[in-house]
Amino acid sequence: MSVNPVRNSNNVLNPAGIIIESNPVAEQGGIISNGVSVVSVRNLSFQYNSEEVLADVSFEIGKGDYVGLVGPNGSGKTTLIRNLFGLLRPSAGTVSLFGRSLLEFHEWHKVGYLSQKFMASYHHFPATVKEVVSMGLLSTKRFPKRMGSPDDAAVEKALARMDILDLKSRLIYELSGGQQQRVFIARTIVNEPELLILDEPTAAIDPETRERFFNILRDLHHQNQTTIILVTHDIGSVGTYASKMMYVDKRVIFYGTFEAFCQSVEMTSLFGSLSQHLICHRHG
Amino acid sequence: MEIIDFLSYGFIQRALITGFFIALLCSCLGFFLVLRRLSLIGDGLAHVTFGSVAVALFLKTFALYVSIPLVMISALGILRLIEKAKLHGDAAIGIVSSLGIAMGIFLASLAGGFNIDLFSYLFGNILAISQEEMVFSILLSGVVLLLVVFFYHDLLSTTFDEESAKTAGIKTRQINMILFLLTAVTVVLTMKAVGILLTSALLILPAVTSLQISKGFKASLLFSSLVGVLSVIGGIFISFGLNLPTGATIVLFNFCIFMAVFVWRRRHDRKRRFL
């Protein structure tokens, strides 16, 4: 596999005070292993109350890529993800999904998104687990949206995959944080999307469920060539599965293949050798 | 008095039919509003209705013709304040609500002070509903209920998690607009039944009663509708039988149902804990 890391064109001062020099490859804007662009970001900047959160971010993610998106707290990872969906409007730059700019993009059934949410958000919301997972199928429906028996079967399949079929009729707010997270993962994968973006999906779940979740992602990635972007602090797990790594700290500081990431001296400076070993030593 | 005699009165028939539809509307929409923590939007828009009735009386026209567009514009104003000015829902509702009241007082004062007509809208009287108002209520209720049925899944998804709904391709802005506009129409229709001051009770009480024993979203929505209809129909019978003010009786009866369900659920939970 060719090693072709991409970094932001500007010199960057990392949190540890180490300057990572610019790399001319960054001018190319990204790497695609198979030529089919699923996500394309060009010169994206985002400001919040005149504070720069993201600056001149460019990258491309190709079909079948499994990208681990890492970076320190407050580095703009979630902001970047929210910009990909149009949940936030960039102050400059463009985002395209499946070759279409966000303004022209309507094929939302191809995209699955799991956001960071807190249990309290669903306090006393009277939806059953089945109703919540069914919401993941709405992107495949046209007006007037109706659910039928094939949808029930898809919901049950997703619940069975997450081993929570027995919770089908339970109310969402009655479940523990970990169980709720499994329900939301089931909702995200119920329509088997081509692009899956997951923001800290394993934050509230136990190690056994986390293992099961990563195995499901691996199956989707291998069997359906699902493109996956995984935002995580779980560096051990992301190292086991991701084919590419992206390090963001307001800018894309590193974007390249997993192997390039592991060989990168700059990443060793950023993470420290132990953390880098945790990421790069594939336990799976 | 025999029940047949009671039901033979034209004004009772009109009250029961109109009450049935209004109750369905309020309990249905109120359910979404309560879950979105916009319970007091009914109260806010009712205050705007007060102002709009003052405008109608000032212009000497049929109140609904003036109130419906004005209250719809105000509902969109609340939505705009939430989205664009980044205000919390309660603050946006508070602003528009005070504006409505101020406008009503201002116009009433210009017209030479408050008159009986304006006060009749404050307290409402479902027994005084005219044939024209009944037909108007049925038609609008039909439209509103159809829209709720057609957009049920989008409304549910947007209510549960607006961000995820957006990424599922649901046009959440339009769905929010639909919800706010339907609420505006419902509030205007409700003012004649229970009065401007008690409108929000019909939106909130059936929903919170239903949430006490929720068994799923659809089931809760249907139970909320049942509670709403039972409260209005029961309230009309009780008020007529005991010669009590109808709007207040409907609301008090609704509150009694809420308390009964609340106490039952508490006892049920306690029993389950000991088993």
Description:
The complex is a heterodimer of chains A (284) and B (275). Chain A is α/β, with parallel strands linked by helices and 284 residues long. Chain A has helices at 77-84, 129-134, 149-161, 177-189, 207-224, 235-241, 258-263, 265-271, 273-280, and strands at residues 12-13, 19-20, 37-48, 51-62, 66-70, 92-97, 100-101, 111-114, 195-199, 227-231, 244-249, 251-257. In chain A, the strands form three sheets. Chain A has a six-stranded mixed beta sheet, sandwiched between helices. The longest helix of chain A is centred in the C-terminal third of the chain and has 18 residues, at 207-224. Mean pLDDT of chain A is 81; it is low at 1-30. With 275 residues, chain B is mostly helical. Chain B is 84% helix and 0% strand. Chain B has helices spanning 3-8, 10-35, 41-59, 63-84, 89-110, 116-123, 131-150, 152-160, 162-167, 172-194, 199-212, 217-242, 246-274. Chain B is globular and about 60 Å long. The mean pLDDT of chain B is 88. Chain A binds chain B through residues 85-87, 106, 108-109, 111, 113, 115, 117, 121-122, 124-128, 131-132, 135-136, 138-139, 141, 143-145, 147, 169, 171, 187, and chain B through 35, 149-154, 156-157, 160-161, 163-170, 210-211, 214-218, 220.
Essential attributes:
heterodimer, A: 284 residues, alpha/beta, four-stranded antiparallel beta sheet, 30% helix, disordered N terminus, B: 275 residues, mainly alpha, 13 helices
